[in-house]
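@here heads up, posting the sequence + SMILES for the S-adenosylmethionine run so it's all in one place. Ping me if the SMILES looks off, I pulled it from an old spreadsheet.
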Amino acid sequence: MIIREGLSQIFIPDDKILPGPGTKRVGFYNPDQVLNRDITVALVNALKPRNYLDGFGGTGIRGIRVSKETGTNSVIAEINRKSVEVIERNRKENEVDLEIRNEPFESVVSRLLFDFIDVDPYGSIVPYLDVALTHVKNGGYIGLTATDLSALTGSAPKKTARRYGAHVENDRLRHETGIRLLLSYIAKRAAAMDKHIVPLISFWRSHYYRTIIKVSHGAGRADEGLLNIRAISKSEVVGPLYPQSEEGPLWTGSLNSQDVVEKSCKQVMRGIEAKSLQFLGTLPHEDARMYFFETADYASYLGKSIPRLDALVELLRENLGAVAWRTHFSPTGLKVNVNHAEFLRIFEQIAVK
Ligand SMILES: C[S@@+](CC[C@H](N)C(=O)[O-])C[C@H]1O[C@@H](n2cnc3c(N)ncnc32)[C@H](O)[C@@H]1O
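bot reply: prediction finished. Complex C-alpha cells:
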C-alpha cells in the first residue's frame, strides 16, 4: 500500500497498518510516529546540521522526509536486506538523493561522521546509546525514540533495576518519571565519556518517548550536568499526598529548550501537520516545574471528585495570579507555578464531594 506523509509518498509492504509498538516486520511503518517524524523534521530544519543519519530505516520514511523537506544530506542505515529494497523503491519514487547502507547502525555511525544521529530501534535505546554518544560530532545532536515503557515507568520493576539501575513508582505521574529516568541514564552515559547533554525536546506519545539532545565535549560541563541527576521523593518534590520513598535517579533539569522550540515552530513547512507544531509549541510549559499536579490524586487525597480543569485554572489565576498549563503527561494534570499548599487550598475550594 502507498501512504502519504509530509511531502513524501511511501510504499509499505503491509496492507494493514496497526498503531502501537507493532511487531518486527519488513518495511515497518508506524502511524503513531507521524508526530515524532514531524517534530524531527521541524528541528532538523531549525538546527541545520550538516548531515543526518537515519540509523534504523524501516521504510526509509524518516530519512526521506528529512532529506526532502529540509535539504539536509542524509544517510539511511538498515540491517534487513528486504527492508533496504523497500527503502530503495521509496527513494526512487520520491526522487531524493540520499545514501542507503545495508549495514548495522553501529558500523555506519562509527565510520562516517554525523552531526545529527537518529536512533529509532525496536524497544530500548540502551544497546545503541554508547556508540551514538561516542561518534556524534562535538556540538551535534542525537534523536532517541524509546519504546521500552514498561522498564521506564516501573511497571516491570526488575527490568527497571536491571536496565536503568533505578527504582520508580508506576503511578499517575509515571510518564514524566519515565522521560526523566531516560534522560538521567543518557546524561550519565555521556558524562562517563566526558560529554555533556542538553535536552532540546522531550515528550511522551502513546507507546514511546522521544528526546532530541545536543551533545558537547568537556569534563567540567559533564560534571555540571551530573548535578541535574538525583534520587527524589515525590512527597518532597510535589507534596505530602505522595509517599516519602526514594525514586530514581532522575533527571531534574529542563526537558526542553524554549529557544529551539520557538525557532522550530517559526518555520513554515508544508509537510508538517499543524497539530504537530501546535503540540511542539506547548512543550516548554512542561518546564514550569518538576512534576505536574495530578488532579485525580488530589481528588482521591481529599475524597472529592475531579473539578472542571478550566474552572480550576481560572480560580488559580484569580486567587494567586498563577499561570497554569495542561500537561501532555496526563489528561487530568496541570503544570502550575505555585507550591503544593497553594494548589491544595484552591483545589479544596472548587472540588466537590
Ligand atoms: C522501529 S523500526 C524503524 C522505523 C523508522 N525509523 C520509522 O520512522 O518508520 C526499526 C528498524 O531498524 C532495523 N534495525 C534493527 N536493528 C538494526 C541495526 N542494528 N542497524 C540498522 N537497522 C536495524 C529493523 O530492521 C527495522 O526496520
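MO: The pocket of S-adenosylmethionine is lined by residues 28-30, 33, 37, 56-59, 61-62, 77-80, 83, 104-106, 120-122 (CB under 6 Å).
MO: One more: The CA atoms of residues 211 and 312 lie 31 Å apart.
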